[in-house]
Amino acid sequence: KNEVEQSPQNLTAQEGEFITINCSYSVGISALHWLQQHPGGGIVSLFMLSSGKKKHGRLIATINIQEKHSSLHITASHPRDSAVYICAVLKGSNYKLTFGKGTLLTVNP
Amino acid sequence: GAGVSQSPSNKVTEKGKDVELRCDPISGHTALYWYRQRLGQGLEFLIYFQGNSAPDKSGLPSDRFSAERTGESVSTLTIQRTQQEDSAVYLCASSLGGRGQETQYFGPGTRLLVL
């Protein structure tokens, strides 16, 4: 079993829908990252969090340390949100990330 | 300023050949990371450089893989005697201070195909 599990693997939505992507991990962590990988491969860091909730525009990330779970929400989804969303955890070293396999999101107009 | 750049963007090679991949981090970033992304798999950590400290090479999959970094600038990842299973996207990232709880800035990657 992978240390970082994401669900769903694939998600198709209609423009305007509310999206939730989940990440569960099985180890103690010091921080969790959400990354976005566009078609063509470029990766952008969206959030880094170690507790609570962060919001940036239409994106919201939450984390529950006790339950070892994080969610990434997208409100009013748009086709340009189509990408792979990757969860990664920092386990204790101050730099080595362990990655989930990603969730492929497709938002149709 | 410029982001992280990598070259080449694509590389096709024959099994058994050596390849060298280059990463130019963001100026002033002391930490540099190499990752590998094989088709259908998550990113895998390969190696980490932080300033003048000894690099963490614990993620390198075999002794055919090596990496160097010149000071706090360019890094090269070398794969000797390439195998088909080395086919992947190789991603480089850099961050300001290498303390982990900070944003990593990724390059566009080098797509390596070993025939």
Report on the structure:
The complex is a heterodimer of chains A (109) and B (115). Chain A is mostly beta strands and 109 residues long. Chain A is 0% helix and 59% strand. Chain A is built from no helices and eleven strands. Chain A has strands at 4-7, 10-14, 19-25, 31-37, 43-49, 52-56, 59-64, 69-74, 83-90, 97-99, 103-108. In chain A, strands 2, 4, 5, 9, 10 and 11 form a six-stranded mixed β-sheet that branches. Chain A has a five-stranded antiparallel β-sheet with strand order 1-3-8-7-6, with no helix packed on it. In chain A, strand 6 and strand 7 form a beta hairpin. With 115 residues, chain B is mainly beta. In chain B, 0% of the residues lie in helices and 46% in strands. In chain B, the strands form two sheets. In chain B, strands 2, 4, 5, 8, 9 and 10 form a six-stranded mixed β-sheet that branches. Chain B has a four-stranded antiparallel β-sheet with strand order 1-3-7-6, with no helix packed on it. In chain B, 37% of the residues are buried. The interface between A and B is medium-sized, with 27 and 28 residues.
